[in-house]
Amino acid sequence: MLRKLTLAAIVAAGFSTPGLAETLKWGSSRDIYSLDPYSYGDSYTLSFLNHVYEGLVRYDANLEIEPALATSWETVSDTVWRFHLREGVKFHNGADFTADDVIASLTRVSDPVSPLRGNLPAYKGAKKVDDHTVDIELVGPYPLLLNDLTNIHVFDLTWLTDNKSLKPTDVGAKVEGYATYNANGTGAFKVESRVPDSKTVLVKNPGWWDASKSNIDRIEFTPITSAATRVAALLSGEINFTENAPSQDLPRLVAQPDLKVMERTDLRTIMVGFNRKPKLANGADNKFNDLRVRQAFAHALDSELVQKRIMRGKSRTAGAIIAPEIPGYVEALDSVLPFDPDLSKKLLAEAGASDLPFTLVCTNDAYVNEEELCQGLVNMLTRAGFKPQLDIAPAAAQTPKRAGGLADVYLIGWANEPMLDSYSILLQMIKTKTDKAGVFNWGGWTYPEIDKLIEQASTEMDRTKRLELQTKALQMAKDDLIMLPLHQQPMAWVMSNKIDGITQLADNKPRHWLTHFAQ
Amino acid sequence: MLVFTISRIANAIMVMLAVAMLAFVIFRLAGDPVELMVNEQMTQEDRDNIRERLGLNDGTATQFVRFVTNAARGDFGISYRNGQDVLTLIGERFPATLELVLVATLISLVVGLPLGVLTAIKRGRWYTESLQFLSIIGVSLPSFVVGILLILVFSVVLGIAPSFGRGEVIQIGWWSTGLLTPSGRAALILPAVALSLYQITLIMRLVRAEMLEVLRSDFVKFARARGIPRWRIYFRHALRNCLMPVVTMTAMNVGSLIAFALITETVFQWPGMGMLFIQAVTFLDIPVMAAYLCIISFIFVALNTLVDITYAVIDPRLRNAR
């Protein structure tokens, strides 16, 4: 008893100091690629670096856009936007944040060698009005500039110039970039050290312009690729946060008294795409061009079974190709065709496609429980009168097949990131494939009417009207079953129950400037 | 002798070229790195530009020749994934792997040798028979299972060793070592034990077989007849005569441990070359994969060539053999 009391006294003495140093030990399933946000087109790296670098605007807790480094903005003309910058903001090295920094950053990200220039498609140029005002000129009227700017991180011009990093790192030129190892942003945390694949340490930036909701002084970010090791590290307390807990271990983690689990579904919608060229890769006539065959495919799938068994009750069955959080969504888009294998057989017979042989192309390293999902699909389709064959391999190996139009039927997931608008999927997946659009239109379809709606939406500055156009396009895509949506994926964060404040949004991005430890 | 050495080295170069050529054919089939490098919003036009600039549209032969000429000048390019110089990247990871492999080898010798002697001299006892049986399990358990079991017992239940990482490291020139700090040594134990398990059983069985052979020989019987103490016969006279094959095998196996440490490294998040390679494969980071394969094949070929030449020095009969 006495010993317990003494211990309690020591603990109390040690913990009673205000502003106690809290360390977030963040174990992730993968490392970030670089400290340079413009080095590799990777959403995960960008979201991590958002702790260090910031954009002109950012998403709030409802995924709505709010001011960050810019305090307000207006459109000067159809193609010119004016941004008023926040005053008194300092970079981690003490330099002042001004209009020149914004221009240098925009120039850097839109450089021809930047792998991230797709994130700022309408950008033409930027002009300094005064030290805290910038005009951004676009190639045409474009409504989604603010969404794009959430992910364009701002660098310090002098720092870039001094370190010869005005241009992004170009792997083709075989020259390393200074910004790959070093960082200097305006964000809530500074980089203290980084050893790739081992540990990246961030420390609190006491001079951050925003009122910090977090009491974290230090973030130790460690990639732990093996899921079993990650779980072990959580159980032993070597890490106290992960945003990627394996679903089969969740019951065990929930049972731990000092851990808590936060689950929800994220924005990524998993769907099936069909080849729509006149002939399949093997030379046979393509029966998937017949709407009845695609409907038969949809009626063959028991979405309840998929949700309960394969996804362990954690996914959200989807009828729309976008998640409810994505602008453009209306409930009418979300109806699911009923499970009816007899109807499938009938439809197939009508279309003269009974016992239709085809290959289902799946990946095994991109989505949640993918292997079981694809196996399940194959079983259900076989029962409904199809003759599917499964081709499953890592994404690196499957992408050329899918992008080359060689896949008969394939699985793809789309989160509409970083734009968080249904324009993203309409432009990149539904629209006819050209140099500027339809990169993920792997089936090679063309719907001139839908294309026209998308083009109208691309220049419609009125948000309500634009979303109406997009919803209409989505409805037409649904009616013709261009893509067959399956579900939104589950996500699970596990953390120490000492964390009493944390923001988990559908985009599955940790925002630790909002994370709080109980005192 | 000179002719022999030159022909051995020429052989080694041919083997390395063949490995590099095979590697390039495989990369060709593995997929398209550009699709993994760019953001989803990138247009087709920009994707094609990147592919062109990286020289991925050229034929396999052109890419191969370009790689070999650059590699001969020590230029392996920079990683598609990290944007870091490939040689620096591998140089940073090499100390981690080498320390792990050397410590694992040391453990396997320290444990494997006495166990081998014991199972030979106490043949037929229940404990040596169970050791023999356990060693079969040691050989047949996959290393990731061993790794996870060790983590479960020593990190989660007992909490005495870290489950991942390398702990604190100290930089000596370009070499980073974890051997000089307590946390570095603690982090090294579990992966080194996991990696050494297979080696231990191998050495134990090899020593046992050799010992049984030697113990039957005349000089041991003579030594016994002279009344030399038993431990002296076993460890001084008999064991010495078993060591040649053990030393050769251990030296040769250092190469394969370096190459196969990648599973252990992945389980323990050990920042070595193996993990670098696994990640390069997932992201089709061709410069890293190519350099890694070349370096690993160089280590293998160099070790083999060295052993060949040493044997030739020892045994003149081998010099003229083809």
Please provide a written account of the structure.
The complex is a heterodimer of chains A (519) and B (322). Chain A is built from 15 helices and 19 strands. Chain A has helices at residues 2-15, 43-49, 99-109, 145-149, 157-162, 227-235, 250-254, 291-300, 303-310, 341-350, 370-383, 395-403, 423-430, 448-459, 463-479; strands at residues 22-28, 57-59, 65-67, 70-75, 80-85, 123-130, 133-138, 189-195, 199-204, 216-223, 241-242, 259-274, 316-317, 356-363, 386-393, 409-414, 483-496, 499-501, 516-517. Chain A is globular. In chain A, strands 11, 12, 13, 14, 15, 16 and 17 form a 7-stranded mixed β-sheet that branches. Chain A has a 4-stranded mixed β-sheet with strand order 1-10-9-8. By secondary structure, chain A is of the alpha+beta class. Residues 1-18 of chain A have low confidence and may be disordered. In chain A, helix 8 packs antiparallel against helix 10, helix 13 packs antiparallel against helix 14 and helix 14 packs antiparallel against helix 15. Chain B has helices at 2-30, 33-37, 44-53, 60-72, 86-121, 126-140, 143-157, 182-215, 218-225, 230-267, 273-282, 286-314; strands at residues 170-172, 175-177. Chain B is mainly α. Chain B is globular. The two termini of chain B are 13 Å apart. Chain B has a two-stranded antiparallel sheet. Chain B contains 12 helices and 2 strands. In chain B, 75% of the residues lie in helices and 2% in strands. At the A-B interface, helix 6 and helix 12 of A face helix 2, helix 3, helix 7 and helix 11 of B. Chain A: GO terms for molecular function: peptide transmembrane transporter activity. Chain A: Residues 1-21 form the signal peptide.
Radius of gyration computed on alpha carbons of chain B: 24 Å
Question: What's the average pLDDT of chain B?
Answer: 83
- Which spans of chain B have pLDDT < 50 for at least 5 consecutive residues? none
Helix content of chain A: 25-40%
Q: How would you write the strand order of the largest sheet of chain B?
A: 1-2
How many distinct beta strands of chain A? 19
Which regions of chain A contain 5 or more consecutive residues with pLDDT less than 50? Answer: 1-18
Elements of chain B, N to C (H/E)? HHHHHHHEEHHHHH
Strands of chain B, count: 2
Cα-atom Rg of chain A, whole angstroms?
A: 25 Å
Overall pLDDT level of chain A: 89
C-alpha termini separation of chain B: 13 Å
Distance between the termini of chain A: 25 Å
Shape of chain B: globular
Overall shape of chain A: globular
How large is the count of helical segments of chain A?
15
